[in-house]
Amino acid sequence: MTDLAQAFSSVRAQSCRLVQPLSTEDCCVQSMPDASPAKWHLAHTTWFFETFILERFEAGFRPFHPAFRVLFNSYYEGVGDKHPRAQRGLITRPALDEVLAYRQNVDQRLLALLAQTLAPEAACELAMLVELGLQHEQQHQELLVTDIKHLLAMNPLLPPYLPSSAMAEVAAERTVGALQWQSFKSGIVEVGHNGQGFFFDNETPRHRQFVEPFSMASRLVSNGEYLAFVEDGGYRNPLLWLSAGWDWVMHEKITRPLYWQNAHAQFDSAWREFTLHGLQPLAAHEAVAHLSFYEAEAYARWAGARLPTEAEWECAAACSSTAPQADYFGVAWQWTTSSYAPYPGYVALPGAVGEYNGKFMVNQYVLRGSSAATPAGHARLSYRNFFPATARWQFSGIRLARS
After folding, report:
1. CB contact set of 236 (below 8 Å; sequence gap of 6+)
2. What CA–CA distances, in Å, run from 279 to 143, 197, 225, 266?
3. pTM for the structure as a whole
4. Which residue, 85, 200, 228, 397, could crosslink 332 as a Cys pair with Cβ 3.0–4.6 Å?
5. What mean pLDDT is predicted for residues 321-349?
């Protein structure tokens, strides 16, 4: 299991690198109930390996700290009690240093376990759980970035997470060209994971689905294009919005994407956006991000288009090598009109691990692709991300479709 041990060490080290730019205080604060403190992410991902692997396989297992089993359980009812999600920012103890010591302790014990010779069946189960844990940690690495951005945006000083010296390179990667349309014929397409490599259970089983003729935009909607929607009164026109979306806009007084600011001063009405590099002028040609499903759907209606289904998205993304400037991955997650529901024939895994995906298949929409915050190597064609219609602190954007 040498390769698996190397992958384990690499992924675990990356989580610690992500918090290096932060202060100890940054790591403890929770900016909203849907976000988690950086310290909690570091501890919870460690809890996963300790609870589901060390407790199962380590001879003479003893927990690093008995209280951590409750403190850092997220939503696994089969494991036992858990600390309330909205109160994670109140966990000032253990301190960050102790959480890092917890990580180091569990890492050493798990690497020692991987070095042991186990019976074939046990070795196979161990490898499966370690891989699941690594994929789980990569999901939390993305959440770390998005939660950190939301936290820093709440600070009146608007401090950057990363130095602005890297902005030129990042901006160049995010620049998009003229939107083009790629047409697809009607027919039966296969949707879901093909069985090669890692996958979450919600990506299976692979199945056939009929799609009508459709066209897909060659790139994501840009800030400049979305700004035209804002300045055209998009947030003031109820005819563009789903009823629940309009209620949300009115109740929350939403007038722009999450991190946009407009000074409205006499001599400065320029739009700005809070980024990981701090407050910056709005880059018109970069892909718009941090939109809810409601905002994405309203924009699509305003633009004379619609959002794709996830079957259409997967069909188009599979052919993206022939489409110019097709940024299906690595920029922003893309909302679809597909409700997050089980595929035909889906069966959740047994036990507490089976709580990973299946029990969330209600009142959420599927997003496809990946974002700039997604760890390298974590994205794949069949990946199904999912969030409620109002969620917008993730790097979520728009790819348009037409019938």
Report:
1. none
2. 21, 40, 20, 20
3. 0.94
4. 397
5. 87
